[in-house]
Protein backbone atom coordinates (compact mmCIF):
# COMPACT_ATOMS: atom_id res chain seq x y z
CA UNK A 1 0.00 0.00 0.00
CA UNK A 2 1.21 3.52 -0.82
CA UNK A 3 2.30 5.54 2.23
CA UNK A 4 -0.04 8.27 3.46
CA UNK A 5 1.61 11.65 2.81
CA UNK A 6 1.77 14.69 5.08
CA UNK A 7 3.28 18.14 4.54
CA UNK A 8 6.57 18.97 6.29
CA UNK A 9 6.38 19.60 10.01
CA UNK A 10 8.66 22.59 10.17
CA UNK A 11 7.25 24.78 12.96
CA UNK A 12 7.09 23.25 16.42
CA UNK A 13 6.08 24.79 19.74
CA UNK A 14 7.09 23.32 23.09
CA UNK A 15 5.11 24.72 26.02
CA UNK A 16 5.44 24.20 29.74
CA UNK A 17 3.85 25.72 32.82
CA UNK A 18 0.33 25.50 31.41
CA UNK A 19 -0.23 24.30 34.96
CA UNK A 20 2.11 26.47 37.03
CA UNK A 21 2.92 23.85 39.67
CA UNK A 22 3.91 21.08 37.21
CA UNK A 23 7.58 21.91 37.22
CA UNK A 24 9.18 19.57 34.67
CA UNK A 25 7.80 21.49 31.70
CA UNK A 26 8.57 24.83 33.34
CA UNK A 27 12.25 23.96 33.69
CA UNK A 28 12.58 22.23 30.32
CA UNK A 29 11.20 25.33 28.61
CA UNK A 30 13.39 27.66 30.70
CA UNK A 31 16.46 25.58 29.85
CA UNK A 32 15.61 25.60 26.12
CA UNK A 33 15.17 29.38 26.34
CA UNK A 34 18.49 29.75 28.17
CA UNK A 35 20.21 27.71 25.46
CA UNK A 36 18.35 29.79 22.84
CA UNK A 37 16.97 26.72 21.09
CA UNK A 38 15.00 28.22 18.21
CA UNK A 39 15.99 25.96 15.33
CA UNK A 40 17.00 22.31 15.17
CA UNK A 41 17.89 21.21 11.63
CA UNK A 42 14.78 21.58 9.49
CA UNK A 43 12.54 22.53 12.41
CA UNK A 44 12.00 25.96 13.97
CA UNK A 45 11.20 25.69 17.67
CA UNK A 46 9.12 28.15 19.68
CA UNK A 47 9.28 27.72 23.46
CA UNK A 48 6.49 29.11 25.61
CA UNK A 49 5.88 29.44 29.33
CA UNK A 50 2.12 29.20 29.02
CA UNK A 51 0.89 30.50 32.39
CA UNK A 52 3.61 32.79 33.81
CA UNK A 53 1.50 34.15 36.69
CA UNK A 54 0.54 30.68 37.91
CA UNK A 55 4.17 29.56 37.47
CA UNK A 56 5.40 32.50 39.61
CA UNK A 57 2.87 31.54 42.27
CA UNK A 58 3.59 27.77 41.85
CA UNK A 59 -0.12 27.12 41.49
CA UNK A 60 -2.07 25.17 38.90
CA UNK A 61 -3.86 28.37 37.86
CA UNK A 62 -4.73 31.83 39.15
CA UNK A 63 -8.43 32.18 38.28
CA UNK A 64 -9.44 29.25 36.09
CA UNK A 65 -7.76 26.16 34.60
CA UNK A 66 -5.90 27.40 31.50
CA UNK A 67 -5.93 23.93 29.98
CA UNK A 68 -9.74 24.03 29.72
CA UNK A 69 -9.81 27.38 27.86
CA UNK A 70 -8.96 26.39 24.27
CA UNK A 71 -12.42 25.49 22.92
CA UNK A 72 -13.47 27.47 19.86
CA UNK A 73 -16.22 29.11 21.95
CA UNK A 74 -13.86 30.37 24.68
CA UNK A 75 -11.17 31.43 22.19
CA UNK A 76 -13.69 33.65 20.41
CA UNK A 77 -15.48 34.95 23.52
CA UNK A 78 -15.31 38.75 23.94
CA UNK A 79 -12.88 39.95 26.63
CA UNK A 80 -14.51 42.03 29.37
CA UNK A 81 -13.36 43.36 32.75
CA UNK A 82 -14.55 40.16 34.39
CA UNK A 83 -12.78 37.76 31.97
CA UNK A 84 -10.48 35.50 34.04
CA UNK A 85 -6.73 35.89 33.52
CA UNK A 86 -6.37 32.41 32.01
CA UNK A 87 -9.07 33.04 29.40
CA UNK A 88 -7.21 36.18 28.28
CA UNK A 89 -3.96 34.23 28.28
CA UNK A 90 -5.56 31.46 26.17
CA UNK A 91 -6.48 34.04 23.53
CA UNK A 92 -2.92 35.45 23.60
CA UNK A 93 -1.47 31.95 23.15
CA UNK A 94 -3.95 31.27 20.35
CA UNK A 95 -2.78 34.45 18.59
CA UNK A 96 0.88 33.48 19.07
CA UNK A 97 0.72 29.76 18.20
CA UNK A 98 -2.52 29.48 16.21
CA UNK A 99 -5.08 30.58 15.41
CA UNK A 100 -6.50 27.14 16.11
CA UNK A 101 -7.72 25.46 12.95
CA UNK A 102 -5.92 27.91 10.61
CA UNK A 103 -3.02 27.54 8.17
CA UNK A 104 -1.01 29.94 10.35
CA UNK A 105 -1.06 27.57 13.34
CA UNK A 106 2.20 25.85 14.33
CA UNK A 107 2.57 22.43 12.71
CA UNK A 108 3.08 20.61 16.02
CA UNK A 109 2.39 21.73 19.58
CA UNK A 110 3.83 19.70 22.48
CA UNK A 111 2.54 20.69 25.93
CA UNK A 112 4.42 19.36 28.95
CA UNK A 113 2.58 18.20 32.08
CA UNK A 114 3.09 16.27 35.29
CA UNK A 115 0.62 14.22 37.24
CA UNK A 116 0.58 13.01 40.83
CA UNK A 117 -0.78 9.70 39.47
CA UNK A 118 1.54 6.76 38.80
CA UNK A 119 1.07 6.94 35.02
CA UNK A 120 4.64 6.72 33.78
CA UNK A 121 5.11 8.40 30.38
CA UNK A 122 1.90 9.06 28.46
CA UNK A 123 1.18 10.94 25.26
CA UNK A 124 -2.32 12.41 25.36
CA UNK A 125 -4.15 13.10 22.11
CA UNK A 126 -7.41 14.94 21.50
CA UNK A 127 -8.19 12.80 18.49
CA UNK A 128 -6.63 10.17 16.25
CA UNK A 129 -3.86 11.44 14.06
CA UNK A 130 -1.58 9.15 12.05
CA UNK A 131 1.38 11.51 12.21
CA UNK A 132 1.41 11.94 15.99
CA UNK A 133 0.69 8.24 16.51
CA UNK A 134 3.81 7.56 14.43
CA UNK A 135 5.79 9.85 16.76
CA UNK A 136 4.32 7.87 19.67
CA UNK A 137 5.35 4.57 18.06
CA UNK A 138 8.87 5.94 17.53
CA UNK A 139 9.22 7.14 21.15
CA UNK A 140 7.92 3.78 22.36
CA UNK A 141 10.51 1.94 20.24
CA UNK A 142 13.38 4.06 21.66
CA UNK A 143 12.35 4.29 25.32
CA UNK A 144 12.18 0.60 26.09
CA UNK A 145 12.99 0.77 29.82
CA UNK A 146 9.52 2.02 30.74
CA UNK A 147 5.97 1.69 29.47
CA UNK A 148 5.06 4.48 27.06
CA UNK A 149 1.32 4.79 26.58
CA UNK A 150 -1.07 6.76 24.41
CA UNK A 151 -4.35 8.16 25.68
CA UNK A 152 -7.03 9.47 23.39
CA UNK A 153 -9.57 11.92 24.80
CA UNK A 154 -11.83 11.65 21.77
CA UNK A 155 -13.09 15.20 21.55
CA UNK A 156 -14.06 16.92 18.31
CA UNK A 157 -11.46 19.59 17.56
CA UNK A 158 -13.82 22.52 18.20
CA UNK A 159 -14.59 21.21 21.72
CA UNK A 160 -10.99 20.22 22.47
CA UNK A 161 -10.06 22.37 25.46
CA UNK A 162 -6.33 21.73 25.80
CA UNK A 163 -3.50 23.96 24.60
CA UNK A 164 -2.12 21.33 22.20
CA UNK A 165 -5.35 21.54 20.17
CA UNK A 166 -4.15 24.94 18.89
CA UNK A 167 -1.46 23.27 16.73
CA UNK A 168 -2.19 21.51 13.42
CA UNK A 169 -0.95 18.42 15.23
CA UNK A 170 -0.40 18.20 18.93
CA UNK A 171 -0.13 16.14 22.05
CA UNK A 172 0.52 16.53 25.74
CA UNK A 173 3.38 14.69 27.39
CA UNK A 174 2.10 13.66 30.83
CA UNK A 175 4.53 12.07 33.27
CA UNK A 176 4.14 10.97 36.86
CA UNK A 177 4.08 10.37 39.71
CA UNK A 178 5.51 13.73 40.71
CA UNK A 179 4.05 15.94 43.45
CA UNK A 180 3.06 19.47 42.49
CA UNK A 181 5.83 22.00 43.07
CA UNK A 182 8.51 19.28 42.98
CA UNK A 183 11.16 18.32 40.42
CA UNK A 184 12.56 14.79 40.05
CA UNK A 185 15.61 14.01 37.91
CA UNK A 186 14.17 10.75 36.57
CA UNK A 187 10.99 12.46 35.38
CA UNK A 188 12.87 15.49 34.02
CA UNK A 189 15.07 13.16 31.97
CA UNK A 190 12.07 11.15 30.75
CA UNK A 191 10.28 14.24 29.46
CA UNK A 192 13.47 15.71 27.97
CA UNK A 193 14.16 12.44 26.14
CA UNK A 194 10.60 12.32 24.75
CA UNK A 195 10.90 15.93 23.49
CA UNK A 196 14.32 15.26 21.93
CA UNK A 197 13.08 12.05 20.25
CA UNK A 198 10.12 13.95 18.81
CA UNK A 199 12.43 16.53 17.27
CA UNK A 200 14.70 13.76 15.95
CA UNK A 201 11.69 12.02 14.37
CA UNK A 202 10.69 15.29 12.68
CA UNK A 203 14.17 15.64 11.12
CA UNK A 204 13.89 12.15 9.66
CA UNK A 205 10.33 12.75 8.48
CA UNK A 206 11.18 16.11 6.88
CA UNK A 207 14.19 14.58 5.13
CA UNK A 208 11.89 12.16 3.29
CA UNK A 209 12.16 8.93 5.29
CA UNK A 210 9.23 6.54 5.03
CA UNK A 211 7.95 5.31 8.38
CA UNK A 212 6.53 1.82 8.15
CA UNK A 213 3.04 1.26 9.46
CA UNK A 214 2.16 -1.19 12.17
CA UNK A 215 -0.02 -1.65 15.18
CA UNK A 216 -0.13 0.58 18.24
CA UNK A 217 -2.29 0.39 21.31
CA UNK A 218 -4.06 3.41 22.74
CA UNK A 219 -6.29 3.92 25.75
CA UNK A 220 -9.55 5.57 24.77
CA UNK A 221 -11.09 7.60 27.60
CA UNK A 222 -14.56 6.21 28.36
CA UNK A 223 -15.71 7.85 31.59
CA UNK A 224 -14.64 9.33 34.89
CA UNK A 225 -15.54 8.26 38.44
CA UNK A 226 -16.03 10.66 41.37
CA UNK A 227 -15.29 9.94 45.01
CA UNK A 228 -18.19 8.83 47.20
CA UNK A 229 -19.50 12.03 48.83
CA UNK A 230 -21.86 13.01 51.64
CA UNK A 231 -24.85 15.29 50.99
CA UNK A 232 -22.62 18.33 51.68
CA UNK A 233 -20.27 17.25 48.91
CA UNK A 234 -17.42 16.19 51.22
CA UNK A 235 -15.63 13.00 50.17
CA UNK A 236 -16.34 9.98 52.36
CA UNK A 237 -13.67 7.62 51.00
CA UNK A 238 -10.17 7.52 49.54
CA UNK A 239 -8.73 5.52 46.65
CA UNK A 240 -8.42 1.91 47.82
CA UNK A 241 -4.84 0.75 48.47
CA UNK A 242 -5.31 -1.97 45.82
CA UNK A 243 -6.09 0.68 43.20
CA UNK A 244 -3.60 3.32 44.36
CA UNK A 245 -0.56 3.48 42.01
CA UNK A 246 -2.13 0.84 39.74
CA UNK A 247 -2.94 3.07 36.79
CA UNK A 248 -3.52 1.03 33.59
CA UNK A 249 -4.03 -2.24 35.48
CA UNK A 250 -7.34 -3.67 34.24
CA UNK A 251 -10.20 -3.08 36.70
CA UNK A 252 -12.68 -5.92 36.79
CA UNK A 253 -16.17 -5.86 38.29
CA UNK A 254 -15.85 -6.46 42.05
CA UNK A 255 -12.28 -5.06 42.31
CA UNK A 256 -11.91 -2.59 45.20
CA UNK A 257 -11.75 1.08 44.18
CA UNK A 258 -12.47 3.11 47.35
CA UNK A 259 -11.96 2.66 51.08
CA UNK A 260 -14.36 4.72 53.21
CA UNK A 261 -13.18 6.56 56.31
CA UNK A 262 -15.29 4.15 58.35
CA UNK A 263 -13.49 1.18 56.78
CA UNK A 264 -15.87 -0.07 54.11
CA UNK A 265 -14.65 -1.11 50.68
CA UNK A 266 -16.42 0.11 47.56
CA UNK A 267 -16.02 -2.13 44.52
CA UNK A 268 -15.90 -1.40 40.81
CA UNK A 269 -19.20 -2.00 39.05
CA UNK A 270 -19.82 -2.44 35.36
CA UNK A 271 -17.51 -3.42 32.54
CA UNK A 272 -13.79 -4.13 32.59
CA UNK A 273 -11.88 -0.90 31.97
CA UNK A 274 -8.40 0.54 32.53
CA UNK A 275 -8.02 3.20 35.26
CA UNK A 276 -5.74 6.20 34.81
CA UNK A 277 -5.18 9.57 36.54
CA UNK A 278 -5.80 7.63 39.76
CA UNK A 279 -5.78 10.09 42.68
CA UNK A 280 -4.58 13.05 40.60
CA UNK A 281 -4.30 15.95 43.05
CA UNK A 282 -5.85 18.55 40.74
CA UNK A 283 -8.95 16.47 40.02
CA UNK A 284 -10.44 16.57 43.54
CA UNK A 285 -12.02 19.92 42.64
CA UNK A 286 -13.15 18.53 39.29
CA UNK A 287 -14.89 15.66 41.10
CA UNK A 288 -12.79 12.99 39.42
CA UNK A 289 -11.17 10.21 41.47
CA UNK A 290 -9.96 8.40 38.34
CA UNK A 291 -10.69 8.04 34.65
CA UNK A 292 -11.52 4.78 32.91
CA UNK A 293 -10.49 3.79 29.40
CA UNK A 294 -10.90 1.02 26.87
CA UNK A 295 -7.75 -0.28 25.23
CA UNK A 296 -7.80 -0.44 21.45
CA UNK A 297 -5.34 -1.45 18.80
CA UNK A 298 -4.90 0.81 15.79
CA UNK A 299 -3.30 -0.17 12.52
CA UNK A 300 -1.20 2.73 11.29
CA UNK A 301 -0.52 3.26 7.60
CA UNK A 302 3.04 3.92 6.45
CA UNK A 303 3.65 7.64 6.20
CA UNK A 304 6.09 9.94 4.46
CA UNK A 305 6.60 13.54 3.43
CA UNK A 306 4.37 14.95 0.68
CA UNK A 307 6.72 16.15 -2.05
ZN1 LIG B 1 -1.16 19.55 33.85
TrEMBL record:
Its cofactor is Zn(2+). One of its GO terms (molecular function) is metal ion binding. Zn(2+) binds at residues 19, 22, 113. It is an enzyme of class 3 (hydrolase). CDD domains: M14_ASPA. It is found in: Apical cell membrane; Cytoplasm. Binds 1 zinc ion per subunit. The active site is at 174 (proton donor/acceptor). Keywords: Cell membrane, Cytoplasm, Hydrolase, Membrane, Metal-binding, Zinc. One of its GO terms (cellular component) is cytosol. Residues 10-195 form the Succinylglutamate desuccinylase/Aspartoacylase catalytic domain. The keyword Glycoprotein does not apply. It comes from the Eukaryota. Its EC number is 3.5.1.114. InterPro entries: AspA/AstE_fam, Aspartoacylase, AstE_AspA_cat, Aste_AspA_hybrid_dom. HAMAP family: Aspartoacylase. PANTHER family: ASPARTOACYLASE (PTHR15162), N-ACYL-AROMATIC-L-AMINO ACID AMIDOHYDROLASE (CARBOXYLATE-FORMING) (PTHR15162:SF5). This is N-acyl-aromatic-L-amino acid amidohydrolase. It comes from Austrofundulus limnaeus (Annual killifish).
